[in-house]
Design goal:
By secondary structure, this protein is mainly α. Helices cover 90% and strands 0% of the residues. It contains 7 helices and no strands.
Length: 212
């Protein structure tokens, strides 16, 4: 690894090496970090386009009629609007982070920029998980409260005198389903952004060693 070789040479502290080697090592870390953040920015755009296309393709007139019958139409529209606004904000933040790293000229500033990128990605992932949870909960509530099948099940449970048991089972199933789905989404983001953040953490540690 070229970076490791440069580090070893720099650590020898020969008279003619420190400044040149330090500069070479920093430039290499800077280029790698800038490239990683650029990919985070590109991936966020592709993800935004992908999920928007999925919504357009699979949400037809019949789906909207069903949502209206569940009495969550206004809530769903408001949630979608909020979701798109905040996602665009995160994409803008990723772009700003990329620009900051691209014009960073010191190792300390680069370290601060890397920490900011990590924090932004973490907030982005948590936001997506929270929005998915809210959407899922509203859908389950609407289908059980106003859906024809849900109404029949609730009435049958009430007539049989097992309403408490029914709701206990339903809540348990919902929690289990949400846990599984959120776990899958978390793993998706872990693979998608986790590898890039792992490389950034490695770069951050390299910069820490340079500062010693």
């Amino acid at each position: 690894d070229e970076l490791e070789l440069l580090k070893k040479d720099w650590q020898k502290k020969e008279d003619h090496l420190p400044k040149v080697s330090y500069s070479d090592i920093y430039k290499m870390i800077w280029k790698k970090s800038s490239s990683i953040v650029k990919w985070i920015f590109y991936i966020s755009i592709l993800e935004f386009v992908f999920w928007t296309a999925i919504n357009i393709v699979f949400t037809d007139g019949e789906s909207w009629q069903m949502i209206k019958s569940w009495h969550i139409y206004e809530f769903t529209i408001g949630l979608m609007f909020l979701n798109y606004i905040i996602l665009l904000y995160f994409i803008f933040k990723f772009y700003v982070n990329y620009r900051k790293i691209s014009f960073t000229d010191s190792s300390r500033d680069l370290m601060k920029a890397i920490l900011k990128v990590k924090r932004t990605v973490t907030q982005y992932v948590w936001f997506n998980l929270i929005m998915f949870s809210i959407s899922l909960i509203s859908g389950i509530y609407g289908s059980l409260r106003y859906g024809p099948d849900g109404d029949k099940i609730i009435n049958a449970a009430s007539e049989a005198g097992n309403e408490t048991l029914f709701w206990t089972i339903i809540i348990g199933i919902c929690i289990l389903t949400m846990t599984v789905l959120l776990g899958i989404i978390w793993l998706f983001y872990k693979l998608l952004y986790g590898l890039l953040l792992k490389r950034l953490r490695k770069n951050y540690k390299e910069l820490q060693q340079l500062e010693v």
